From TrEMBL:
This is Benzene glycol dehydrogenase. It comes from Gordonia namibiensis NBRC 108229. SUPFAM superfamilies: NAD(P)-binding Rossmann-fold domains (SSF51735). It comes from the Bacteria. Keywords: Oxidoreductase. The gene is bnzB. The keyword Oxidoreductase applies.
Length: 269
């Protein structure tokens, strides 16, 4: 039996990158997925997976978008076992001093609306069904959930908030619903910027990133599939709740002189 056989999952931020890769893995593990994204690119999942997926174009920073996702799952399959809040945007590492004061409120509202409010709305929309199914929640954090320098002030604050949300919801919903998170480091994907700051989508991997990582490799988006699948399993992580799993290629333990103890640099003997 596949590890997610007969599971019904609502998954936001499913149109590209890590989200799309994990959705594909979930379906191959036996799950049925309502795949939500603000981009119509999510609709192509139906061509690949047929009636095992319901693509939904929606704004997850709104109650209506999240309620539509929850209703789609229950109307099609009668339950919800897992909610994955993966949608997120970036501030392109914009320092606070570079954001005009009269634009800060709008930028805060936009970024926190997607990165923090959206997962709260998603959990709330799915909550009654999650309690009935004794299910679980997975939220996507970041290296920036626990460290500075992984984004600008807005992004870092929002991802710290996601870590707090994982812990608080794990407390509030125990013992009925488990709540955990995944904190990626650097993934080869394009991140949507904050529109109120005039930012478009941008590549998340900058020149020199690979050499800065202790593992000396920028892993593909499929490198996160196993962790998300394990957390969604009713068996593999049955004793885990309130945990943010770091999957950051060692970024959080990077050294000052060189990224890892056995990393060779030009000029090393």
């Amino acid at each position: 039996m596949s590890s997610l056989s007969d599971q019904v999952i609502v998954f936001t931020g499913a149109g590209a990158g890590i989200g799309r890769s994990v959705v594909s893995r979930y379906i191959n593990e036996g799950a049925r997925v309502v795949a939500v994204d603000i981009s119509s690119a999510v609709e192509s999942l139906r061509d690949e997976f047929g009636d095992k997926v319901i693509p939904l174009v929606a704004d997850v920073s709104t109650w209506e978008g999240n309620l539509a996702a929850a209703n789609a799952a229950t109307e099609a399959w009668g339950k919800i076992d897992v909610f994955v809040g993966n949608a997120g945007i970036t501030d392109a590492a914009r320092p606070l001093e570079d954001i005009p004061g009269d634009r800060l409120g709008a930028a805060f509202g936009e970024l926190f609306g997607v990165n923090v409010l959206a997962p709260m709305l998603g959990v709330r929309a799915c909550l009654d069904e999650l309690i009935k199914s004794q299910g679980n929640v997975i939220l996507t954090g970041s290296y920036a959930s626990s460290n500075a320098g992984g984004g600008g002030a807005l992004y870092t604050a929002s991802k710290h908030a996601v870590l707090g949300l994982v812990k608080q919801l794990a407390y509030e919903l125990a013992p009925d619903v488990r709540v955990n998170g995944v904190a990626p480091g650097v993934a080869p994907t394009r991140l949507k910027g904050t529109g109120s700051l005039g930012q478009a989508a941008a590549d998340s991997v900058l020149d020199g990133t690979r050499e800065a990582l202790p593992l000396q490799e920028v892993s593909g988006v499929d490198a996160y599939n196993e962790v998300f699948t394990l957390l969604a399993s009713r068996v593999g992580t049955a004793a885990m709740t309130g945990t943010m799993v770091s999957v950051d290629s060692g970024l959080s333990i990077r050294g000052i002189g060189k990224p890892g103890g056995r990393v060779r640099r030009d000029g090393d003997n």
